[in-house]
Amino acid sequence: MSIIPPISAILTAALITATALGAEVPVDGEGEKRPFWKAPGVYEGIVDKRDLAVSAKIEKGAAKSDKERLQVVAAGHVSVPLSYAWAKVREFERLPKVSSHFKNAEYFPDRKRLHLIVTALGYQAFLVLHLKFIDEVKYKEIRWETTEGAFTGMTGTIRLEDFERRRTEMSLYSEHESKKLPLPDAIKSIMIEVVSQRVAGLMREYIEGEYKKDLKKSAVKQTPAAKGPGQ
Asked: What is the pLDDT, as a whole number, of residue 89?
């Protein structure tokens, strides 16, 4: 992606603090309704063309409610095994190296708290995320809730699944509801989508680049040293 994400991608949700399909996609990823990126045509683009699918919505609440709701979903494929992607997406303090949108990232494993300072379109926000990790054989998830700072109360899930044992399918869902969303008027849904897609692409590029480096290192270690004359 989120991925991304994204990733993310991750981390897309962490950057602009969003990502969800609302009730259509429960946090465990199981449900009768499919997310938009699973629809025919869209999903083929993800699988065959490496498309990054991103959707952002800002909606008014029910008739008797004065609240606004931000919903975002992002999905894409990363060309690395599931175990490798799972390890990389949890290297939170490397986020500033992935994208300049992450000004600072500090993770406290004992409390499972992630402190982020993110920037986009000239705006900056501080967030504290409480993380929960789900490590199953067929899928992995990072579930979070923003407990301090901008978008307090935002919840979301980053889900990783194996795809034909050669790629990782990553999806990102989150939502936030409040009387007034902490977003400047200049940042509309379309701009969130643009920034999210860029960050997801950078995250995917980073993970795949790290994977190629590690493969080269492994190959060098396994290559026998050349023998000199008379040996």
From this structure: 93
- For every residue of 60-101, DSSP letters joined together read E--TT---EEEEEEEEEEESS-HHHHHHHHT-GGGHHHH-TT
Polymer length of the chain: 231
**Tokens standing for residue 130:** 């409480």
Count H helices, E strands: the chain? 6, 8
Q: What tokens does 183 get?
A: 């977003």
The residue to which tokens 């982020």 are assigned: 116
Are 12 and 74 in contact by the 8 Å Cβ rule? The answer is: yes
Question: What is the C-alpha to C-alpha distance for residues 27 and 157, in angstroms, rounded to an integer?
Answer: 6
Q: Which residues contact 199 (CB under 8 A, 6 or more apart)?
A: 2, 4, 5, 6, 8, 9, 11, 12, 15, 98, 99, 101
Residue type, 189: S
Sequence-distant (6+) residues with CB within 8 A of 211 are 79, 80, 84
In the three-class reduction of DSSP (H, G, I as helix; E, B as strand; rest coil), residue 147 is classed as: strand
Report the predicted TM-score, pTM, of the whole model to 2 decimal places: 0.77
Q: Hey, what are 135's tokens?
A: 């490590």
Burial zone of 45 (CB within 10 Å; 0-12 exposed, 13-18 middle, 19+ buried):
middle
Mean pLDDT for each consecutive 10-residue tract of the chain (231 residues)? 33 36 34 78 95 84 70 92 95 90 93 91 86 95 92 91 94 84 59 76 92 92 64 58
Taking the C-alpha atoms of residue 48 and residue 54, their distance in angstroms, rounded to an integer, is 17
- At 169, phi and psi to the nearest 5? -95, 120
Q: Which residues pair with 80 in a beta bridge?
A: none
In angstroms and rounded to an integer, the radius of gyration of the C-alpha atoms of the chain is: 19
